Amino acid sequence: MPPKKGKEKEPPAPVKATGPPPKPRKPPPPPACFSNEDIAKFKEIFKAFDEDNIDKVPIEAIPTMLRKLGFNPKGEEIKQLFVMFLEDDLVDTVEFFEWLFMVEAKMNWGDDFEAAILKAFAAIGHDDEETGFVDFEVLREELMTWGEPLSEIEFMDWIKLAMKDKTYNPEDAGPEDVGGDGYEESPGREGGTRKERCRT
């Protein structure tokens, strides 16, 4: 009678190699066109919505955050931003560097509101040839005559804000244009005029 065979031992399970934990992902540098002042402003808005102080904001806060910067983002634009800058559609938070790139993209896309302002500016200043420039005296007359007219002081204060370099002097103003670069240098949102910001 052959001897009973003992129960064969199962081979030991492979031991999982252990090692140091993966290094945290290093965020990319901010867009080069943002100044330190711009980044500080964007950071302030970001921190205001980072209620848990985890350096992340809920994805639902992004439209409101963009409106805080003066944008009027459409639903489709928001979806496109998420596709462009978030890892996948399961992510429910946004990191600061992702927020910066979303702001950059929205600036480059422009805004219907800004386009409407530029169109109105062209109409008021009678830029019939669409040159991007308006006659200074014509603009002043229109704004100080029609609708709810501006006073001389109000107009001077407004034109200083509308100019890119903020150096308006009524004694030096030329009659040919406003702001040197014309009305396309309209006042921007947080961070300067539109032409000073990031462009693709």
TrEMBL record:
Basic and acidic residues bias locations: 1-11, 186-200
A GO CC annotation given for this chain: myosin II complex
Region (Disordered): 1-34, 169-200
InterPro entries listed in its UniProt record: CALM/Myosin/TropC-like, EF_hand_dom
A molecular function (GO) term: calcium ion binding
UniProt biased composition (Acidic residues): 173-184
Biased composition (Pro residues): 19-32
Domain EF-hand, first and last residues per copy: 37-72
Alphabetized PANTHER family for the sequence: CALMODULIN LIKE 3, MYOSIN LIGHT CHAIN 1, 3
Protein name: EF-hand domain-containing protein
Species of provenance: Manduca sexta
